[in-house]
């Protein structure tokens, strides 16, 4: 499977190192208890996060392949679904970045739920746009690649939601620091100000 991939993107490297990661985790499982966790370190939760992250990486790699292919879809159809797809891409990117930072810094992923909610709203907008654009007469062979790409994007959002749930469970078991969301755009007289709470 990996012979077909000729370049070494971070996603391909992550996917190809699965056995190495699993063997290292198995050794870590038997490591002598030390630090604040002692013998209660949630290794199984880390493994779940790794499995879900690899699944998401597979979907991202597939989407990348679809986007690199030249498709001749009708420009009006592409224009009809462009805005929801851009919103979904942006929001799922924010979710994955937030979750990565959460794991690295051992901080509870406070804003990922907001971005996932925005992703779901964009999926609903996409469904509405697809229903409206299906009324028009398009050649089905021209729009299938675009529909396939959007369905993969929706699968990436589902994976990000699963990763978020797994990291939330991990953060509870590993006692990640819960900073919470800063209060954004609090009215401060005539102009709006930002209040950031630092613990």
UniProtKB/TrEMBL annotation:
**Cellular localisation:** Membrane
Task: Provide GO CC annotations from the record.
Answer: plant-type vacuole membrane
Does the keyword field hold Hydrolase? no
> Which of UniProt's keywords are assigned here?
Ion channel, Ion transport, Membrane, Transmembrane, Transmembrane helix, Transport
Q: What is its main location?
A: membrane
An example of a Pfam family matching this protein is: ALMT
Signal peptide positions are none
Report the InterPro entries cross-referenced here.
Answer: ALMT
Q: Does the keyword Transport apply?
A: yes
Q: Which GO terms describe its biological process?
A: malate transport; monoatomic ion transmembrane transport
The record describes its membrane topology as: Multi-pass membrane protein
Spell out the family assignment given in the record's similarity comment: Belongs to the aromatic acid exporter (TC 2.A.85) family.
Query: What is the official name of this protein in its record?
Result: Aluminum-activated malate transporter
Native source species? Helianthus annuus
């Amino acid at each position: 499977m990996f012979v077909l991939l000729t370049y070494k993107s971070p996603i391909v490297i992550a996917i190809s190192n699965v056995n190495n990661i699993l063997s290292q985790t198995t050794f870590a499982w038997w490591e002598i208890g030390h630090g604040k966790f002692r013998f209660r370190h949630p290794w199984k939760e880390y493994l779940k996060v790794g499995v879900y992250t690899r699944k998401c990486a597979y979907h991202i790699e597939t989407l990348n392949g679809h986007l690199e292919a030249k498709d001749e879809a009708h420009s009006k159809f592409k224009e009809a679904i462009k805005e929801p797809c851009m919103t979904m891409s942006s929001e799922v990117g924010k979710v994955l970045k937030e979750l990565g930072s959460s794991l690295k810094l051992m901080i509870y992923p406070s804003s990922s739920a907001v971005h996932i909610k925005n992703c779901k709203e964009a999926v609903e907008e996409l469904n509405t746009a697809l229903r409206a654009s299906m009324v028009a007469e398009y050649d089905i062979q021209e729009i299938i690649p675009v529909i396939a790409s959007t369905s993969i994007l929706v699968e990436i959002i589902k994976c990000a939601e699963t990763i978020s749930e797994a990291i939330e469970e991990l953060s509870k078991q590993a006692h990640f620091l819960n900073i919470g969301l800063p209060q954004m755009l609090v009215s401060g007289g005539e102009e709006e100000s930002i209040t950031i709470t630092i613990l």
